[in-house]
Give the backbone structure.
Amino acid sequence: MKNKTNVKESLIHGVFLLFGLITVGCVLLITVYLIVAGIPAIHQIGIGDFLFGREWASTAAEPAFGILPFILTSLYGTAGAILLGVPIGFLTAVYLAKVASPKTKAVAMHAVSLLAGIPSVVCGLIGMRVLVPGIRAMFNIPDGASLFAAILVLAVMILPSIINVSVTALEAVPREYEEASLALGATPVETYFRVSVPAAKSGIAAAAVLGVGRAIGEAMAVMMVSGNAANMPSLFESVRFLTSAVASEMSYSSGLQRQALFSIALVLFLFIMLINAVLNLCLKRSKEK
């Protein structure tokens, strides 16, 4: 009987190891492919002109391939979505995990799950038909398709990830921690924010990391509400993100233009890897303290 158990455990360990190696292999293949496909264009254009050029005119008689507007737009858009989405998602998670009644929590969590299942193109369509005209009318500007509209759409789209993961982390905090805090005279609100939240900070930080990944990698929704124009970023002007630059031109690209799009994908990939590495390093240092 013991031998059979050992054989089953070894088999399960082998299956898990195989799946883990497949995942790592896929990441390595993607990395190698992007490097091979993206480096030639960067070498031909020049890394300085490519990364810091302010003009993108890939189909002009004298093409220009500067992606600085795309990089800055992605940075500003992601930062704005995180600044809006993380506090709202975090506070919502605290309410659902610690304050809301079971019935309210069940209804809210179903709504959050439904929001997570809405395709990005639907979010973009709603934003284009409702949000963009609303911004145009509210701020009296020629066109509501702008960086501001993209930030609002991204903030809504990252909420499900932040709320779900944060609620799970908060519910995993041992009840004894909160009972001890309440016994010492702390109020429920003080207990939630000074005991439960610090105990669940690693899970909440992981939720923020997921939100960052979702905001950076979104393409279709931001392309529909941002105007998709290769301008330097301004809050109420049409802009183009790194992701939407690739998505909007890949279908008809060729030659150096197509290679430059792969170079943009490489920059985006390295950008995401860098952000994840920095956030994971911060989490690791926080755990050590």
Summary: The mean pLDDT is 89. The two ends are 45 Å apart (CA to CA). Strands lie at 56-57, 64-65.
